């Protein structure tokens, strides 16, 4: 395309624009809407466009007294002249594909050039405005985008419009909160009186743009003329309503509607959120480890939390870090705020399980539990003071900030329903309680992909039984402790299977990170000693003996099953008993899936498989078809990925635990990462947090290798993903390309996964 | 080969044996020596052999009254009849390739069969003895060796010898302690009077067997007749002396001498060891984390250790676990015994660095530091009681057991010298002090492959400076702390470079596992607070803030360099200053190799490289050729292996840290592994401890992949191994097949590596 063609009328005063395909490609930002509205026949303010490349060439020729391009430019300017033949006053405005703050605001009231020379002279009003408009684009060049960014820069355009000195009116195409079709007020001013044609314009622009738009028109004597438009941010609820409306109106297909929703934005409406975060300033920031916002009065103990809750008041439990003794308090509290810990800390894990917002690892929070006060940043906060936390971004605010409650309205349900039509990968959920399972089913979960059996012990009574087991010194001791556990477990499994109504349930064998389940504070140790009938000193000695230097890499997962086979046996028996009860209740086969965690060798899998199969067979449930059994492994260690071929022979499925796989592949403890992660992101070492979005180049290669080796040796192998990445849209899109059969995420992320996978499959 | 051929004369009474190649292959154990001595012309007791397959076939035919094989057997028995034509009395003995306790002892005085039927009848003396001999072999079948073991079993042989009723004499071919050529006493009885021919037999057998042999002869009226021989275990010192003697005598080539020494056995003479471990019973067993044995009186504190040492007495420091405060005590003690911790615990690391024997993780040791007593197993032990520990196998004994001191005599030096002729892979050492470097040079180290810079701070004075740095709250604080460190470091590096006399020195950037460097006990915290001028409460708060859940996967290695660039800068400046001093002293170029630890992304390497190069360039040392600079990374995380191609572009060398790579590939904390490792080995889950011998199928594939990817993108890439596996013979043989350029191990293992790699290269 010649540079002469890079100056052209987007909406000429007379006739049609008749753009070439090259010119159509140049239509970015406002230029695009002006062109499309004008083409659709709606009266539009005459507008021309010029690219930076053309403008710079014009200037070069001007210096050399070469007038060839100027001829084209002048002819272009003439296309702004209307039927009256009068040279109009002009407006110059930028037209960026993405709006940003530094761009020059529209420059109005520019006199038409008085001569051809005047039309390109940067010391004259028109030339100066164009020059300054281009300059306002700035010039960003990332280290990897040199060439591309330079091309993009040459294609930047500036608009020149005929400035009709009429009344201006601004409105939105849709209500940004509800999504209802406008004209709607912008929020800065009430909606002006508008002629009926504006409704046509709104419908036209909404269909063409498929986005919420801010629209500027002139109200002439003769009627409405379209001047400019730019997209605006609407709430995800509004986007959903609009998408459903467009699909129902036939403007979009249903798949279009599914594709146009940003799955990441759904998080906003699946949890309570701050209504006015823009205006409040956080007093401290930590890690958002369990999403959603919560307001309440500060309490420092489980007892105070329970008391406050009993009085019908919301409270936020504030502690240095939580431990098993705090579970009742965490359940009573509306939100949790801790000074220490990260995403996989006790607080984070329990908060996500119980669905409570939680901010952890607030480094400038100091708790004085004795004086019932704490210091957050530079503020002193006492029991009963109101605070608000946002577990999505880790902010902590003083006072009770207004919250918006989650709204899983009709439009979300409709879009998710449509999404299931194109989705080919199943979405399961990571839950272990009936309550969470019910939430997940409501969100459309198709099964349980990860039931962490040790999480069934998060209650005071059961914790005693569990601690007795962990702290037992020999097999007799342990056998006694196990007796107390088997009944709990059978009942839990029966309830879970019944709730899931025959959908698959994958139970992960016991994998307690010991340090999370043991008493830590003096008080807790005293209580535990009493409940176990042990001397405090004896308990302390046992605790010291089993303390681990690196619990993440310690005596856990399959290692427990092999060193304490009686624990494995108890668990399989409880599972089978639970399946029996559920099968009798539902009158159908219960699909039990047993999963071995933290495997690094095929020999571990063989050892456990042999025992699991023996117990399952001897239960008689498989023969009577009351239960079906599927046996699989978590793949969450690099060595398991390498040996996947050998392991796959012995299993029905792999489920990738991407959290631990990321920890071991990178050699990073997620709990300890906050000390350097911020610095790493600031210095550009990491493009993104590998615990949020899967590291495709490293962890991704591990997974890819394991899938290939696993499927090669066992073509029927089923592949799932059950780490937290299974709720992250970018990671989900990646997993869908690896050919996985299902993903499993927390209940609140099930809708995100359904939508993302529908987009990826389309 | 027909079964008839599987009964044959090994040493016939008359004539030659004339064995077929198939029969030669059947000669295992004693049969082999009898045949070879007889073939060499030395008078030998007539002997025949029969395989289990032949014997069982004989028995089958006997049941069916089929005499075909019996004809061969009888003809075979006739070969025992001497010139006098008398049927001799017979001896039946097993002839196993590997001696074991369950084998039938020689059955003597068996009358010759009176008929052909009698010769195969298992109810008659000869047949019964043969049957019982075969039965005593037992029948072991491992899960993976079914077929092979069944073949081996069929080939087992039993010997029948003519029992000359003369005097027997037993002696050794060499002295088992000194290796001097015999005849030598067996240790059970004084050496009998022997005719001169015995010396010929000794020389003959020593040359044929190339091992220390126990030899049985008959002393007839006519002279000496060889009866039987079996190999015996000799000390490695004796093996070395014998090997040198055989090579000097031309019986072996020098390469033969090198190949015939078991490198693993060298460990016995490179550390003090128990002289009488066979007779003493350990009172407890832990993990041998630093090899060698030590005796001394028990002390419970650094002060007592220093006092005892000052009185010229050896002492063993007994503590729950060691921390930085114990370093002076550890230096004063002769050995260290701890209740907690594993191979990479503070105690283990410091003990290996200082060369002290250490037993750690003794689970049934309880220390009462207040009452100055401890309980080991079921014994109460008090200050001043004598104990002996063996850091090689983890045993703890009551009393002062006699020790043998290391003897790096002439024969070891000779064999190692020969080994260097065929070795193609360089052997470096992991040291950071001048003293250890000198030891390693004496053992033949060709450079330093791993100088752990943080280990240079293991002294009270420097520890204060280091703690100040770690505990600093901001950059100003840290900068002040660093000033105190730079002088120490420059001097240390200068000394190290000077000691190494221009050999390459690889310095690993600062990689302190924080928990090892910080105070833990109340007393230590009080002292540290005082030395840092901090309130105890403030120090405790800082300690809590930087405490890590999983320090192995925490804020360490390259992560420290990136978050605290001032630490990196200090270190490179100190290195350059040290190189300058050493270069001026030695008048030569100092080859400085800088290595970045714990890398997981190429971006980390790029970031550090840019800064290191800038400081090195600005020092002027490279221009003046006072120093040369090589830049590399540790490869010790799975992700670094995966991204090796990208990383290799930016570095001159990779050095594999196999300890951490094993920890992350398996997801096992070495410190915490003892709780399940024993169970894993007992249950056959692991064939061997992956921290002792490299896991070829998992970690090995990681290393192989990294080398391939690294060399593909940088063909000049140098590859080293610096984990503890670099001192393990089996691992070294594996590494040599991967094409590494050098290995680096602790000083005491340098001879083992030199020998193993010479064998592998041959």
TrEMBL record, chains A, B:
Residue numbers binding substrate: 452, 508, 636, 657-660
Stored Gene3D superfamilies: Phosphoenolpyruvate-binding domains (3.20.20.60), Phosphohistidine domain (3.50.30.10), Pyruvate Phosphate Dikinase, domain 2 (1.10.189.10)
Chain residues that bind Mg(2+): 636, 660
Gene Ontology MF term list: kinase activity; metal ion binding; pyruvate, phosphate dikinase activity
Active-site residues from the entry: 346, 722
Superkingdom classification of source: Bacteria
Ranges for domain PEP-utilising enzyme mobile: 314-394
Cofactor(s) demanded: Mg(2+)
Keyword annotations of the record: Kinase, Magnesium, Metal-binding, Transferase
Enzyme nomenclature, EC number: 2.7.9.1
Domain PEP-utilising enzyme C-terminal: 414-760
Region Disordered: start-end pairs: 103-123
Family statement drawn from the similarity comment of this UniProt entry: Belongs to the PEP-utilizing enzyme family.
PANTHER family membership: PHOSPHOENOLPYRUVATE DIKINASE-RELATED, PYRUVATE, PHOSPHATE DIKINASE 1, CHLOROPLASTIC
Function, in words: Catalyzes the reversible phosphorylation of pyruvate and phosphate.
Protein name per its UniProtKB record: Pyruvate, phosphate dikinase
Species the sequence originates in: Devosia pacifica
């Amino acid at each position: 395309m010649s540079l002469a063609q890079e100056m052209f009328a987007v909406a000429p005063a007379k006739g049609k624009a008749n753009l070439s395909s090259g010119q159509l490609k140049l239509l970015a930002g406002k230029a695009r809407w002006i062109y499309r509205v004008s083409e659709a026949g709606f009266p539009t303010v005459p507008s021309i466009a010029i690219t930076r490349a053309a403008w710079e060439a014009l200037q070069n020729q001007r210096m050399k007294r070469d007038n060839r391009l100027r001829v084209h430019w002048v002819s272009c300017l003439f296309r702004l002249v209307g039927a009256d033949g009068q040279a109009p006053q002009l407006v110059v405005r930028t037209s960026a594909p993405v709006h940003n703050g530094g761009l020059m605001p529209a420059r109005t009231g520019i006199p038409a050039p008085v001569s051809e020379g005047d039309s390109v002279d940067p010391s004259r009003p028109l030339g100066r405005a164009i020059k300054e408009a281009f300059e306002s684009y700035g010039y960003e060049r990332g280290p990897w985008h040199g060439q591309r960014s330079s091309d993009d820069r040459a294609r930047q355009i500036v608009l020149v419009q005929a400035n009709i000195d009429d009344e201006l009116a601004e409105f939105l195409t849709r209500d940004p909160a509800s999504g209802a079709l406008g004209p709607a007020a912008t929020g800065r001013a009430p909606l002006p009186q508008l002629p009926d044609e504006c409704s046509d314009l709104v419908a036209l622009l909404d269909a063409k743009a498929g986005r919420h738009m801010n629209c500027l028109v002139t109200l002439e004597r003769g009627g409405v003329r379209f001047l400019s438009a730019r997209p605006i941010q609407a709430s995800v609820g509004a986007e959903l309503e609009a998408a459903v409306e467009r699909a129902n109106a036939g403007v979009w297909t249903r798949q279009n509607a599914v594709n146009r929703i940003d799955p990441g934005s759904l998080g906003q409406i699946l949890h309570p959120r701050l209504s006015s975060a823009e205006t409040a300033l956080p007093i401290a920031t930590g890690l958002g480890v369990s999403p959603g916002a919560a307001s309440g009065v500060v309490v420092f103990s489980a007892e105070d939390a329970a008391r406050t809750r009993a009085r019908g008041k919301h409270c936020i439990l504030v502690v240095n870090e939580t431990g098993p003794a705090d579970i009742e308090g965490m359940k009573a509290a509306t939100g949790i705020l801790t000074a220490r810990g990260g995403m996989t800390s006790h607080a984070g894990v329990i908060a996500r399980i119980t669905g409570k917002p939680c901010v952890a690892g607030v480094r400038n929070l100091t708790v004085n539990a004795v004086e019932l006060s704490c210091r957050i940043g530079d503020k002193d906060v006492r029991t009963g003071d109101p605070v608000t936390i946002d577990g999505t971004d880790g902010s902590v605010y003083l006072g009770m900030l207004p919250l918006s409650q989650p709204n899983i309205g009709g439009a979300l349900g409709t879009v998710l329903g449509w999404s299931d039509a194109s989705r080919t990968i199943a979405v399961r959920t990571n839950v272990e309680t009936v309550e969470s399972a019910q939430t997940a089913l409501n969100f459309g979960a198709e099964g349980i992909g990860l039931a962490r059996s040790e999480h069934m012990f998060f209650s005071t009574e059961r914790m005693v039984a569990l601690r007795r087991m962990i702290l037992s010194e020999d097999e007799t001791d342990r056998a006694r402790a196990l007796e107390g556990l088997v009944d709990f477990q059978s009942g839990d499994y029966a309830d879970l299977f019944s709730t899931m109504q025959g959908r698959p349930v994958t139970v992960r064998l016991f994998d307690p990170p010991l340090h999370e389940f043991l008493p830590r504070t003096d008080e807790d140790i005293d209580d535990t000693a009493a409940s176990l009938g042990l001397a405090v000193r004896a308990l302390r000695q046992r605790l010291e003996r089993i303390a681990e230097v690196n619990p993440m890499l310690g005596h856990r997962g399959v290692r427990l099953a092999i060193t304490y086979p009686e624990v494995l046996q108890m668990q399989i028996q409880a599972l089978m008993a639970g399946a029996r009860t559920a099968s009798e209740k539902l009158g159908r086969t219960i699909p039990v899936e047993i999963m071995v965690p933290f495997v690094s060798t095929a020999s571990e899998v063989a050892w456990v498989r042999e025992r699991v199969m023996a117990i399952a067979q001897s239960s008689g449930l498989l023969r009577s078809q009351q239960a079906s059994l599927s046996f699989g492994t978590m793949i969450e260690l690099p060595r398991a990925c390498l040996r996947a071929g050998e392991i796959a022979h012995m299993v029905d499925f792999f489920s990738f635990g991407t959290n631990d796989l990321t920890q071991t592949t990178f050699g990073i403890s997620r709990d300890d990462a906050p000390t350097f992660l911020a610095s790493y992101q600031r210095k550009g070492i990491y493009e993104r947090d590998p615990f949020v979005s899967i590291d495709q180049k490293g962890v991704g290669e591990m997974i890819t290798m394991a899938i290939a080796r696993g499927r090669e040796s066992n073509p029927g192998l089923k592949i799932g993903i059950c780490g937290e990445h299974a709720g992250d849209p970018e990671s989900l899109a990646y997993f869908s390309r690896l050919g996985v059969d299902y993903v499993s995420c927390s209940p609140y992320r099930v809708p995100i996964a359904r939508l993302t996978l529908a987009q990826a499959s389309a």
